[in-house]
Design a protein that fits this description.
- This protein is an alpha+beta fold.
- The protein has five helices and eight strands, in the order ββαααβββαβαββ.
- An eight-stranded mixed sheet has the order 1-2-3-4-5-6-8-7, sandwiched between helices.
- Bound molecules: coenzyme A (COA).
- Coenzyme A (COA) binds next to strand 5, helix 4 and helix 5.
- It is an enzyme of class 2 (transferase).
- GO terms for molecular function: acyltransferase activity, transferring groups other than amino-acyl groups.
- Pfam families: Acetyltransf_3.
């Protein structure tokens, strides 16, 4: 897989694999914003550790870590990741961060899922995608349900959701 050549187009957004030059102050500020990072592991981001993180994800053949960009302005608004990808089991785990809060609630995440998962099923030949999410994240469950994910396991504070290729709603 040559990551350099990958670009996934949606209606309002496009996705490209993140490279170190995208480790910006803005990206750091998302991760250091208590509203955005409430349910994320990272809370003390610096440009230097973001660069290291992006580099390690870019070099990992079992990870596809994309920036989400606004088509009109080319503004970097968030990230989405398939990791780990298991090409033998044909599975991957999906993770999403829309960092720009003024883009929340506009259906960006479902649009990202639509085009990313079409790529995952058609080009990467995957068959099952899972994701985990805390119940407190407003909209996260609704967003994944829009492309066909179903609740696979329910915990006190979180869900594990699963999408089989045949249930994908494009
Ligand atoms: C959770 C997240 C991925 C959802 O993405 P999104 O692009 O905002 O998703 P949608 O626009 O489809 O919103 C889903 C639903 O939640 C609602 N919603 C989203 N943000 C909302 C908010 N701040 N307040 C109230 N409702 C909200 C939407 O109206 C929509 O409901 P509807 O289908 O009835 O219209 C995104 O908001 C996000 O990245 N949040 C912060 C980071 C995070 O916690 N990520 C981990 C996610 S697993």
């Amino acid at each position: 897989m040559n990551k350099k050549d990958i670009r996934i187009n949606g209606e309002r957004i496009y996705l490209v694999p993140l490279t170190v030059e995208y480790a910006s102050e803005k990206y750091c500020s998302w991760l250091n914003d208590p509203v955005v990072n409430k349910y994320l592991d990272t809370k003390n981001a610096t440009i230097e550790n973001l660069q290291k993180y992006i580099k390690s994800k870019y070099e990992d053949p079992n990870c596809l870590f994309f920036g989400i960009f606004d088509k009109k302005t080319n503004k970097h608004i968030g990230n989405v990741k398939l990791e780990p990808i298991d090409f033998n089991l044909k599975t991957a785990v999906l993770g999403t961060l829309i960092g720009e809060k003024n883009y929340w609630g506009m259906g960006i995440a479902p649009e990202v899922y639509k085009y990313l998962l079409k790529y995952a099923f058609d080009e990467l030949k995957l068959e099952t995608i899972t994701a985990g999410m805390y119940k407190g994240i407003v909209g996260a469950l609704k967003a994944v349900k829009k492309v066909g994910f179903k609740i696979h396991k329910e915990f006190d504070d979180a869900y594990k959701v699963l999408l089989k290729k045949e249930d994908f709603i494009f």
